[in-house]
Amino acid sequence: MDEKHNDEQLDALSEQVAMLKNLTKEIDTEVKDQNSFLDKMEAGFHGAGEALGRTMRELDAMGRRGGTRLALFLIVAIVAAFLLVYWATTTTEPAAKAKGPNPVRLRR
Predict the structure, then answer these.
(1) Looking at the whole model, is its pTM more than 0.85?
(2) Backbone φ and ψ of 103, nearest 5°
(3) Running DSSP on this structure, what letter comes out for residue 66?
(4) Sign of CA pseudo-dihedral 65, 66, 69, 72
(5) Contact call for residues 59 and 71 (beta carbons, < 8 A)
């Protein structure tokens, strides 16, 4: 009787160990996938950082050459573009919404 009970407990314990082993494998796979994703993101950020550094060096060189008028023009053009997009997105409302609700008048 005790041996049968011990075998049942041993089987239950074996099932739990197998479940934990599978869970551990899934966690390992997920960690490897996440590490791979982070490595790719790091490479992307590194490339973006290099591009930004090149741009800043070129802007610095342009400023030293006396290209302030061009830089000012670019800044004004960018601000104007953002304002135009902002204006276009805030003023395009459906006609019904712009007029408001129509009041209903009851006749007596």
Answers:
(1) no
(2) -70, 140
(3) T
(4) positive
(5) yes
pLDDT surpassing 70 at residue 4? yes
Alpha-carbon gap, residue 53 to 75, rounded angstroms? 19
H helices present in the chain, as ranges: 2-65, 68-91, 95-99
Task: Phi first, then psi: give them for residue 93, nearest 5 degrees.
Answer: -115, 155
pLDDT top residue among 86 and 71: 86
- List C-alpha distances in Å: 67 to 23, 59, 60, 74: 62, 9, 10, 11
Q: Pull the structure tokens for residue 58.
A: 């070129």
Question: Residue 106 region, left (φ>0) first, then alpha (ψ -120 to 50), else beta?
Answer: beta
Decide: helix, strand or coil at residue 50: helix
